[in-house]
Design brief:
The protein has a domain at 182-424: FAD-linked oxidases, C-terminal domain (Vanillyl-alcohol Oxidase, Chain A, domain 3), CATH 3.40.462. By secondary structure, the chain is α+β, with helices and mostly antiparallel strands. It has an eight-stranded antiparallel beta sheet. Strands 6-7-11-9-10 form a five-stranded antiparallel beta sheet. A three-stranded parallel beta sheet has the order 3-5-4, covered by helices on one side. It is globular, with a radius of gyration of 22 Å. The protein has helices at 26-35, 86-95, 111-116, 154-161, 193-198, 233-258, 262-276, 287-291, 312-326, 336-339, 394-411, 425-431, 435-445, 454-461; strands at residues 6-7, 14-15, 19-21, 41-44, 59-62, 69-72, 77-81, 98-99, 131-139, 146-151, 169-176, 178-179, 182-190, 207-210, 217-225, 283-286, 301-308, 353-358, 379-386, 414-415.
């Protein structure tokens, strides 16, 4: 029987597990673990990740049928099957006048995949922070029989909130909910980071973009409001859907994948794109609509780095210098060879750099877990996305590797577990002060590391 070939969303990861299965319910998960006790096990959500966390040559379990949802009004929470996509959960909650406390840019992820990798939005904690309980299937020691465990308190819950699947197969999550709410938004250009950070006091949910080659800041100023949906909200949605989520990405794809014209990328950001951004259009709409985007309609790859607020300005300046040094389009009069002294492949960054603020999580190893055990300093994520085709990405990988390693050394920058992540085990040991405690908990639940893979063992479990 031919093996199933599995690709992730970005097509930078592909592999063939020995067994691929889609259990219909929790009992089916236990049966799979019993039948394939000798195989390593990993779980597949929506495959919207770029790291090697999903890979296995053993048993790969898809949770797409585990989609049950049950409200728990007394606890202001919802119990949801691990394979339920966030967009479906949000639609269910909306019918009851509720929503999630935090929402990421993408709602195509499964709830378990999003929380297990620390998915976040802007201005609040990551989704992982709000988990109350995790139900997980794993092998009981010393019998080796597959069982369910409920993790709902203490350090074990903190580990389970963002576990990368290392504690077993998550089958259900209980997560906090809150009343549905409206958000007021407008976009404004700024010349300095200081201006944007000062406006967080008024707009705590804002996110902003650093535009390559013009180096201007555009901020989506956002705050919660009791105002009703604006009359122009529909037109605003159409503007974002057609103008930003589609047309902008079509232009970028044409410039990078097919035309290969980095000089035009620079011209596009300096002269054309600024004229298409409508500033100070004040709109109120529901939180789900405002906080999510459709940029996942086009295949891409991403590295996302996390720095503390005190390092943000220096980190962005460093990123700008790195982008210029790797490009062959920073100066049209300067020959590309002078920019590539190390004979590395040129890379012209071609997508807005998204920056979001995240509150410190009550977890052990999410990217915004405490930098020090008593630290509450806010984190900022900095996203670098490439829309090049998979065969064109050598320059991006060189850039991403250099950027991650240099920012880790200079600013103790962490890499997103679910995105391109080249950091070494020694770096992760230094960056996550609670990593040792996480390892001990994993070892108690899975002493033989059956739910790990080589990348996770090397990045997290190895000393």
């Amino acid at each position: 029987m031919a093996k199933t070939l599995v690709h992730n969303f970005g097509k930078n990861v592909s592999f063939s597990p020995t067994v691929f299965a889609e259990p219909k319910n929790e009992h089916g998960v236990i049966e799979l673990l019993r039948q394939h006790r000798g195989l390593p096990v990993r779980v597949m959500g929506s495959r919207h990740a770029w790291s090697d966390a999903i890979k296995t040559d053993g048993l790969l379990i898809s949770t797409r049928h585990l989609t049950q949802i049950q409200l728990n009004p007394n606890r202001q929470s919802v119990r949801v099957g691990s394979g339920c996509k966030i967009k479906h959960l949000l639609k269910f909650l909306k019918r009851h006048g509720l929503t999630l406390p935090s929402v990421g840019l993408i709602d195509e992820q499964t709830i378990a995949g999003a929380t297990a990798t620390g998915t976040h939005g802007s201005g609040k904690h990551s989704l992982s922070h709000y988990i109350r309980r995790v139900r997980v299937a794993h092998y009981e020691e010393p019998s080796g029989a597959p069982v369910f465990s409920e993790l709902d308190n203490g350090a074990e819950l903190k580990a389970a909130k963002c576990s990368l699947g290392l504690l077993g197969v998550i089958v259900e999550i209980e997560i906090e909910v809150r009343s549905a709410y409206q958000i007021e938004e407008h976009t404004e250009k700024h010349n300095s980071l200081t201006q944007i950070l000062e406006m967080e006091k008024q707009y705590p949910l804002q996110q902003f973009f650093l535009m390559p080659w013009s180096w201007d800041f555009y901020c989506q100023h956002r705050r919660e409001t009791s105002t009703a949906t604006s009359r122009t909200a529909l037109f605003y949605r159409v503007y974002w859907l057609l103008g930003i989520d589609w047309l902008l990405h079509v232009v970028i794809v044409l410039l990078t994948r097919f035309l290969g014209m980095p000089r035009f990328v620079r011209i596009f950001y300096q002269r054309i794109l600024p004229k298409t951004i409508i500033q100070n259009w004040l709109v109120t709409d529901d939180s789900h609509t405002i906080l999510t985007m459709d940029h996942d309609r086009f295949r891409h790859i991403e590295i996302e780095l996390f720095v503390l607020r005190s390092d943000l300005e220096a980190a962005l300046n460093h990123a700008r210098e790195m982008i210029i040094s790797f490009a062959d389009c920073s100066n049209p009069e300067q020959p590309p060879a002078s920019l590539n002294k190390q004979n590395r492949p040129p890379y012209c960054h071609h997508y807005p750099i998204c920056v979001r603020r995240i509150r410190t999580d009550d977890t052990l190893i999410s990217m915004t877990s405490p930098a020090e055990l008593d630290s509450e300093e806010d984190w900022y994520s900095i996203s670098f996305i490439s829309y090049q085709s998979p065969h064109q990405r050598s320059g991006f990988f060189e850039f991403a590797n250099s950027l991650a390693i240099s920012m880790e050394k200079k600013f103790n920058a962490r890499c997103h577990w679910g995105k391109f992540n080249p950091l070494s085990p020694s770096a992760n040991q230094k960056l996550f002060p609670q990593l040792r405690e996480f390892r001990e908990i994993v070892k108690r639940h899975d002493p033989e590391a059956r739910f790990a893979n080589p990348w996770l063992k090397k990045s997290i479990l190895d000393s």
